[in-house]
Amino acid sequence: VGRLPRERLDDMRDEAKEEARIPIIRLYDMLVVSIQVVLSDDLVGQLKEDITAAIEKRRAHGLVIDVSGIDIMDSYISRAIRDIGLIARLMGVDAVICGIAPAVAITLVEMDMDLQGVHAELNLESALEWLQRLGSEKEEATSATDAPDGRTTDFEALA
Amino acid sequence: MRTLTEQLLEALASHVSYMTASSILTLSRSRSKVNLTYFTPDDSKRLLGEIEHGLRTFLRDEKTVGACMARVSRILQAPAASRTAPAPAEATGATTPPRSSRTGTDPKHDTPPRTSTAAARPSTAILPEASTETITVPIRNEGDIVRARSTARSLCCDIGFSQAQQVRVATAVSELARNIVYYAVEGEVELSLLDTTPPGIQAIARDEGPGIPNLDDILNGNYQSKLGMGMGLRGTRNLVDEFDVKTEPGKGTVVVVRAFLR
Fold first, then answer.
1. pTM of the model
2. Is any Cβ of chain B less than 8 angstroms from the Cβ of A110?
3. Cα-based distances in Å from A43 to B5, B26, B77, B83, B97
C-alpha cells in the first residue's frame, strides 16, 4: 500500500477537524487575527474571549481583523465581526477590519449592514499602515502633553 | 429523496467513519474540481481517482479499497433515473452535457456570452420535468447552514451567476437556514434551478416551527432581534429578485426566494 505524501495527509486531517481556534498573531505592538475558516457560534465565542485576553495580557495598541478568507458574510457573521471590533475599542484598542471581498461588500450594503462603528481598510497592508499612523498621532499627542507613561494617555484618549 | 452526495457518502461511510468519508468526498470534489450537479465521464474519472487516493490514506487493505471503489463507481455510473437529482446529460442521453456547452461561460464574468446560453437550452428543453434540478438540504445545526449556502453557491456558479450574484444568493440562503436553526430548530432548504429565460435559482426554506408572529414589523424594519441584526429576513428580501413568506403561528414557515441571471 503506497503511502501518501505528508502534506496530503495533513490536508485531509485539516478537513476533518473543522473546529479549531483562530490564532491571534502579535506583530510589533498590534494583534492580527486572520479569519480563514467558517465562523461558527462556538468559534466566535472563543475568539471574543481569546482576543480580550490577548489585549489585556499583551497591551497591544491595535487590532486587525482580516476577513479576506470569508467568502460569505450573513447577518450573524457580520454582527459577530463588528462586535469583536467594538469590544476591542471598549478596551482602548483601535480595531480595523480588512480584506472584505468585493461581492461581500456589495451584499453587506444591500442588506443594510455596514459594520458601523468599525474602521475598514482594503487589505492587511493598508490596515497596518492605518494603525501605525494612528499610533504615531497618539504619540505626538503624548509628547505634547508631556506624559511619559503611555498608560495615562490611553486613559485620556478614552475620557 | 437522496442526492448523489448522500449516496456517495453512504458508500464511503460503510468502509470508513462518516467524518472521514465526508472529508474524503469534500477534498476529492475540490481537488478534481468536479461539480456533482453536472459532470462528464471525464469528470467522474478524475473524481474517482481522487476518492481512491483519499481512501488509501485511511484504508490499508487493498481489498477493502477495491470494494469501496466498486460501490462508488457504480453510484457515479448509475442511470440518472435511479437518483432524485438526475444529471441532465444522462437523462437526455446526449453525448455533450450542458457543462461542456457552457465552457465559454466563465462564472467570473458578469455576462456570459449569449451563444453559450442559447446552446444549453435545446438540451434542457427535451428533459421531462427534470429540467429543474432539486437538492434538499436538511437543516438541523450550524453545519447545515454552511452546507446549504455552499450548495446554493455552487448551483449559482453552474448557471453562470456573477461572483456578486453568487454571494447574494448564498447569503440569502444562509440567512434563511440560520432562521430555521435559531427559531424552528429543524427544517429544510430546497434548492432548485429554474428553467426560465433567463435561468434562475430557487430556494425554499421550510420548517414546522413557531411561525413568525411579527412578520410585518420585521419586514418593515421595526424589529431588532437579539440574535442577528434584526435584518436577516429584510436583508434577504433585498438580495433576491422574488421573495415570498407564508407563516402561520404554531404551524411553521415557508420562505421562497428566487434570483435570476442578469
1. 0.62
2. yes
3. 27, 21, 40, 36, 41
